[in-house]
Amino acid sequence: MMPDRATLRLWLLRLFSAIPTARATAPKPGLWTPRRILLIRPDHVGDLLFATPALRLLRDSLPDAHLTALVGPWGQAVWQGNPCLDEILVCRFPGFARRPKESLLAPYRQLWVTARQLRSEPFDLALVLRFDHWWGAWLAKLAGIPERVGYDIRECLPFLTRVLHYEDQRHEVVQNLVLAQEVVRQTGHEPGDTRNELEFALAQPDREYVDRLLAERGVTPTQPLVAIHPGAGAPVKLWSVEKWARTADALVKEWNTSVVITGGQGELDLAWAVCAWMRERAIVAAGLTSLGQLAALFARCNLVLGPDCGPLHLAATVGVPTVHLYGPVDAAKFGPWGNAQRHIVVVSQRSCIPCNRLDYRDDELPQHPCVREIEPDAVLEAARKALTS
User: Fold this and answer.
1) Which CATH number is correct for 5-186, 3.20.20.80, 3.40.50.2000, 4.10.320.10, 3.40.50.10710?
2) CA 194, CA 180: separation in Å to the nearest integer?
3) Which of 69-73, 245-249, 351-355 has the least mean pLDDT?
4) Is a pLDDT exceeding 80 seen at residue 356?
5) Roughly what angle, to the nearest 10 degrees, separates helices 134-142 and 106-118?
6) Which one of 25, 46, 122, 270 is CB 3.0 to 4.6 Å from 313, fit for a cystine?
7) Residue 41, CB half-sphere, CA atoms under 13 Å: how many?
């Protein structure tokens, strides 16, 4: 009987991991300070925000180390202003670009090219912050980085020199922090700043831009403001346009608030559809903000609502109460981080939640209405709790 795809991939990964790479040998046990550390995190906004406490711990614990982040172009702006990093490199990680897949060989061609580029920088330690990212672990080995640290996921193991046991039910913030603490301890140092607050630097020009944007649309500095961000990275996460409109109208009447609908350039149609279904007036800011400007806009709000998505984690990071609609993704591991009274998760009663699957085809979506089944009354009740917390 032929092995399944996962088993075949594991065999091939083990085979490729046996190919030697010529670079410096690993350090001897005991106290040592890595000179240059490569932090690999291929994900999008929310997961990059979840890793910011780990960045802070590494910087505080190893102040003389040069910290370089390797992120996707979709995540560069999240860490761009982070004071804990010395350098950011960009890689269009296969499988994370949210676009049609290329040929089967394309990820491996890119692996070779990126590894050759990384060899020009003398990294002596790589930290694979995403627990299951075997491509990143393989990249670190192919780049000749002598120390490669990550979690003990079977696909990653062949390429790592030091591993930590992965405990499945820990939140992603804790996963990142624990891995960073282990790196510090393995160098013979004691972990420094272990605070777990997320971090995003708000820039004054972005605040000023938002002030002008709102003033031009008749929102005064003291006017209550609620943001609705209806978009998400996977169709199965989306709520209905009509339900967003009903919820927004109810908030306007109950709280005498202005409503701003946010989104990226690709979410303009969705934002305007919500606005068109509303009976009350709304401001559409979709496509008008950079990530920093969106953070500043959220910081001006009294509440932000949306499905499970990176911008909602951004809102929570800048200190705004939030309401998150969750379905397929496990909120215990990837939900909002912070005070549960201020950052509230709403789910339907489906017994299959969470399935942690996002790649449903369009024709499969009607059979997976876990988010769409949530009723506006449940979202409004959560909004009231968040607003009065």
Assistant:
1) 3.40.50.2000
2) 10
3) 351-355
4) yes
5) 50
6) 46
7) 29
**CATH architecture of the domain formed by 204-387:** 3-Layer(aba) Sandwich (3.40)
Order across the sheet with 343-346: list the strands.
Answer: 283-284, 258-261, 225-228, 303-307, 322-325, 343-346
Res 363: pLDDT = 94
Average pLDDT over residues 44-68: 96
* DSSP code at position 143: T
66 Cβ contact list (under 8 Å, min separation 6): 35, 36, 37, 86, 87
Compute the half-sphere exposure of residue 197: CA atoms within 13 Å on the CB side of its CA. Answer: 8
Q: Which residue has the higher pLDDT, 305 or 24?
A: 305
State how far the Cα of 288 lies from the Cα of 264, in Å rounded to an integer. 8
The model's pLDDT over 226-246, given as tens digits with 9 standing for 90+, comes to 999 999 999 999 999 999 999
d(CA 130, CA 156): 10
pLDDT category, 4, cuts 50, 70, 90?
Answer: low
